[in-house]
Amino acid sequence: MTARITFEHELQVLHNDLKKMGIMIEGAIDCCMEAFENQDEVLAREVIAGDRMINDMEKTIETECLSLILKQQPVARDLRAVSTALKVVTDMERIGDHAADIADLIQRMKGKPPVYRLVQHIPEMARVAKQMVKEALEAFVTGDIDAAKDIIPRDDVVDELFNNVKLEVVHLLQDSSEHADECVDVLMIAKYMERIGDHAVNICEWTEFGKTGVLQDVRIL
């Protein structure tokens, strides 16, 4: 097997593992939102436990990337393909962390007044952010720069929904400060979801860099 064929084979293995990790983090987002809407403490615990599997997958992918760099010594575009995978997997791991953070907050909310039912925009934030993550990972694996660029503006939708949540929480606090702690928890959940959207944008930007060597309009490699 030639060095080129070996590199392409190992890169495909890497991309397959990125897809597997993507499925895991998409599932974590779905489950933490289901746990939020139903105040399901058991499901929240499952999300937290599942984050350990996501962390393990991150380590596997990092090892694959470093092995490719050390054994194959890629240059130019091949080097970008591997180095961006290292960056993307970090964003993916952070998405898993944020889902686990949300699940932890849900456990804290158990048995407290259902303030969360008065905040309408968090499930929609989750829907948009999850779709951004899904499509961003697809764009990265396929090297589709146009698709990646199309995803980035959707972060404005997530940001606008987050602003709506903040307004809803402010109105709740103006009506009564009795449930201030619960309002803060709800706001933190929305903030973690907003960060998930930010990580999807990062993945899109790394997709462009992997193909062009340009990151945020600056040529790097």
Number of E strands: 2
Between the first and last Cα atoms, what is the distance in angstroms?
Answer: 29 Å
What is the overall shape? elongated
The major sheet is characterized as: 2 strands, antiparallel
Give the low-confidence spans. Answer: none
Provide the β-strand percentage band: under 5%
Give the number of domains. 1
What structural class do you assign from the helix and strand content? mainly alpha
- Give the strand order, joined by hyphens, for the main sheet: 1-2
Per DSSP, the total helix count is 7
Q: What is the CATH topology assignment?
A: Methane Monooxygenase Hydroxylase, Chain G, domain 1
Q: Which architecture does the CATH hierarchy give at level 2?
A: Up-down Bundle
Q: What is the arithmetic mean of pLDDT?
A: 91
CATH homologous superfamily - what is it? Phosphate transport system protein phou homolog 2, domain 2
Radius of gyration: 19 Å
CATH class equals: Mainly Alpha
Order of helices and strands: HHHHHHHEE
Q: What's the helical proportion of residues?
A: over 70%
Describe what this molecule looks like in 3D:
It is elongated, with a radius of gyration of 19 Å. Helix 4 runs antiparallel to helix 5 (145-151). The protein has helices at residues 3-38, 41-72, 76-109, 122-142, 145-151, 154-175, 180-212, and strands spanning 214-215, 218-219. The chain has a two-stranded antiparallel ribbon with strand order 1-2. A hairpin with a 2-residue loop joins strand 1 (214-215) and strand 2 (218-219). It is built from seven helices and two strands. The mean pLDDT is 91. The longest helix is centred in the first third of the chain and has 36 residues, at 3-38. With 221 residues, the chain is mainly α.
